[in-house]
Write a structure and sequence with these properties.
Layout lengths: L1 H14 L13 H11 L2 H6 L8 E2 L10 E5 L29 H7 L2 H17 L4 E3 L22 H17 L3 E7 L12 E3 L2 H8 L1 H10 L3 E4 L3 E2 L2 E2 L4 H11 L5 E3 L8 H6 L28 H8 L5 H17 L14 H14 L1 E5 L1 E2 L5 E2 L11 E4 L24 H9 L3 E4 L17 H15 L4 E7 L22 H11 L3 E6 L14 E4 L7 H10 L25 H4 L6 E3 L8 H6 L17 E3 L3 E5 L2 E10 L5 E11 L10 E10 L4 E8 L6 E3 L4 E3 L4 E7 L5 E8 L1
Parallel strand pairs: 2-3, 3-4, 4-6, 5-7, 5-18, 6-9, 13-14, 13-15, 15-16, 16-17
Antiparallel strand pairs: 1-2, 7-8, 10-17, 11-12, 19-21, 20-21, 21-24, 22-23, 22-27, 25-26, 27-28
Helix pairs in contact: 2-12, 4-13, 5-6, 5-13, 6-8, 13-17, 14-17, 15-16
Bound molecules: beta-D-glucopyranose (BGC).
């Protein structure tokens, strides 16, 4: 032991003689990596490839190379976790701002806001001393039961990729690495650690990879998190085809692949399969809180043994170590890394803005008694007693959800937000109880409690002249939470029945749903308005009340199709083999027909289509034109605010191939722009259709290709609400 130590120190002393490029903040990152690598022993190189605590990896203390500090992600910087266990450390300086969920961000269809989000949230990570934020996520919403949909950006790869790129660029500019999740096919939570996903090559290329690819190529992503599930019967955290083949070789990713916690299962596969950093949950050696078991991790001593025995080449080690060093010099030892801020007014303002733009107005009925005006924005002078009903009106929805749960310093609940605007007119009845957020368990609420709460709400409804129902899901287990999927498409806790009974007493009901997934709306005809709020973070109540009062005109559009009934979703059409799998094998038999591609092409009428969302104003579209420009096509369309108040419209471009030798969706999203228009104002929106936008993935030649012929460019206010179309020929 003594001899080993001395040899290491002697080697170290020798290498310290030359210029210490790796410590020079002005030296290029690659030069720093090369220099650091040349000074490190084999053992030190192995050491930086695995955890030393729940959320850190060691640096190289002897050389002054810093450790990497990580935290979840993606909606804010998670509270400090104990060094060795999953318990919270109970610090009193780690309360932060909860930003809206990523589905909400996707609903804004506003790339600039995504950049604002990435910038502000990463400042909180920087201030807390974090180098890597575990997020964002671009897993495709294949199934409305997925417990983690709220952490992702919807069902369309183009939208998800476009929205994630600005977030990542802005965060990484601050010296905080994003760790994009979960690569890939982690489309549901049931059996997530063991399930193998069987999916066509075409669906992989057209649906499940593009958002990740865009982030790698356009944002210069620094770290990627492998997913728990398997693809090609190999766990994705150690999947050579995925990590070496696609990510590193094909896309040129030069960053580090981090395992999901406990997602690594084998030293050989991890070492040769492209994993760079192993993080753990219950991995070998980590069964007790205080045991320092990290050396038994797969990428620790067992890996070192294979290297020393010459069974794995040192090139493999050097490549991994270089990727980790690159991450350290880009973040922890990046002279441009910002100090950041925590709970600053800017952060709350960003949180509010994203929330306001992400709320989607799904229904807004015209009311006879209001001279045919819509019920929203609310004309408060018409109502004296407004009854707010629902658990979500008062619930802290930053808690729960699994790893993305947050400890906030300050929150405005929906009830507080409404009281701030409508004061004494507001009364409240909980109506139903959802229990405490409990990881992997359900907190049973006694039937008598539910009955009592319901009776109270129905009693109070008799005096109200307007009801605002605030419900949905809540990040409890099986209610939008990691580690479990929902069990039904219906809302839980008797909400459907409660709304129906309230409506019999007072038909003026505005339904407000917080939820990361679509749900059945059997009560839709009985409510006058429906607002889809996702999860709105710390400023939730203010964002909501600004929309209800009309201070802000809603402009969110759905990133996920809301079906009328569960079985309309393609993942449910093939029995358990299609979801959640049988004997740990799941088959994505719908292929590329995910989300609106299915509803549109197979002519299934959704409840609310992809891209849908109402405004308090109206927009008129001109006739679109198309013109060839080199290898591209330019599409132009004018949009006019034809109503009486300022508003924002998301103009959507879909492209369809009119004749093709393979089956293709009727149309696919290939562009969108969010435009802000004053009443009467007109703007021209321009889109460029590139050759890639016309291609499909050909399974015969294993390449993207297009076939000459006629295509159609559709301009829509949603996937179903097409306002104009033009044909062009390739
Ligand atoms: C989740 C990851 C998360 C990690 C650390 C895992 O269970 O799947 O998304 O980043 O835990 O909390």
């Amino acid at each position: 032991m003594k001899k080993v130590l001395f040899t290491a120190m002697f080697a170290a002393a020798c290498t310290m003689v030359g210029a210490q490029t790796y410590l020079d903040p002005n030296a290029p990152v690659e030069a720093r990596v090369k220099d650091a690598l040349s000074r490190m022993t084999l053992h030190e190189k192995v050491q930086i490839l695995h955890a030393q605590s729940k959320f850190t990896t060691p640096g190289v203390p002897r050389l002054g190379i810093r450790q990497l500090n990580m935290a979840d992600g993606p909606h804010g910087c998670r509270a400090e976790i104990d060094w060795n266990s999953w318990g919270y450390a109970n610090w009193n300086n780690d309360s932060i701002v909860a930003f809206p969920s990523l589905t909400c961000l996707a609903s804004t269809w506003n790339r600039d806001l995504s950049s604002v989000y990435g910038h502000n949230v990463s400042e909180e990570f920087a201030f807390r001393g974090k180098d890597i934020m575990l997020g964002p996520g671009t897993t495709i919403a294949r199934c409305p039961f997925n417990g983690r949909s709220f952490e992702y950006m919807g069902e369309d790869p183009y939208l998800a990729g476009e929205m994630a790129v600005p977030y990542i660029i802005a965060a990484q500019k601050n010296g905080v690495a994003c760790c994009l999740k979960h690569f890939f096919l982690n489309n549901h939570e049931v059996n997530r650690m063991t399930v193998n996903v069987n999916v066509s090559e075409r669906a992989v290329e057209e649906i499940y990879l593009p958002a990740f690819e865009k982030c790698v190529k356009q944002s210069g992503l620094w770290t990627m998190m492998g997913s728990y599930n398997k693809w090609l019967n190999v766990h994705c955290c150690q999947n050579d085809s995925l990590l070496n083949g696609i990510l590193k070789k094909r896309w040129g990713f030069d960053g580090a692949v981090i395992s999901d916690w406990g997602g690594c299962h084998d030293t050989w596969e991890a070492a040769t399969g492209g994993l760079d950093i192993e993080m753990g949950s219950f991995t070998n050696g980590m069964t007790a809180d205080n045991s320092q078991g990290y050396n038994t991790y797969f990428l620790a001593d067992p890996f070192e043994k294979l290297l020393r025995e010459g069974k794995i080449s040192e090139d493999v080690l050097n490549d991994k170590a270089a990727r980790v060093l690159r991450t350290i010099f880009r973040t922890a030892m990046n002279p441009k890394k910002v100090i950041g801020k925590q709970c600053s007014p800017d952060h709350y303002a960003a949180c509010l803005k994203v929330g306001e733009e992400g709320v989607v107005l799904l229904k807004n009925e015209k009311i006879k008694e209001l001279k045919n005006a819509s019920i929203l924005p609310l004309d408060a002078s018409k109502y004296n007693k407004i009854l707010v009903v629902g658990d979500n009106a008062v619930r802290n929805m930053s808690e729960g959800g699994g790893s993305s749960e947050l400890k906030t310093k300050f929150d405005i609940s929906p009830l507080q937000g409404l009281k701030a605007v409508y004061g004494d007119k507001i009364d409240f009845a909980q109506g139903y109880a959802a229990g405490r957020p409990m990881y992997a368990r359900v907190d049973e609420v006694p039937a008598e409690t539910q009955a009592k709460l319901k009776a109270e709400a129905l009693e109070k409804a008799k005096d109200a002249d307007l009801i605002i129902f605030i419900g949905g899901m809540n990040k409890n287990h099986q209610q939008d939470c990691e580690g479990g999927d929902r069990l039904t498409y219906e809302l839980s806790y008797g909400q459907n029945e409660l709304i129906a009974e309230l409506a019999k007493i007072q038909p003026n009901i505005i339904a407000v749903m917080y939820a990361g997934n679509p749900y059945a709306t059997p009560w839709l005809p009985q409510v006058k308005a429906l607002l889809q709020c996702w999860y709105l973070g710390s400023m939730s109540g203010e964002a909501l009340s600004n929309i209800i009062s009309g201070k802000v005109n809603p402009s969110g559009k759905l990133p996920i199709t809301f079906a009328k009934k569960k079985d309309d979703y393609p993942c449910f059409q093939y029995g358990e083999e299609g979801y959640p799998g049988v004997n740990d094998q799941v088959y994505y038999k719908e292929g590329i027909y995910v989300g609106y591609r299915h509803f549109d092409t197979k002519k299934v009428q959704p409840q609310f289509p992809f891209g849908f969302g109402l405004s308090y104003t109206t927009f008129k579209y001109g006739k679109p034109t198309v013109k060839a420009n080199g290898e591209n096509f330019e599409v132009k369309v004018s949009v006019t605010n034809s109503g009486s108040r300022e508003g924002k419209e998301v103009v959507q471009l879909y492209v369809g191939d009119l004749k093709c030798s393979v089956d293709r969706p009727v149309k696919e999203l290939k562009g969108f722009e969010k435009v802000s228009l004053a009443p009467g104002e007109t703007k021209v929106v321009e889109f460029t259709i590139t050759p890639r936008d016309l291609q499909f993935y050909d399974e015969q030649s294993h390449q993207w290709k297009s076939e000459p012929g006629k295509f159609k460019a559709y301009i829509g206010a949603s996937e179903l609400d097409i306002r104009g179309a033009v044909e062009f020929t390739l």
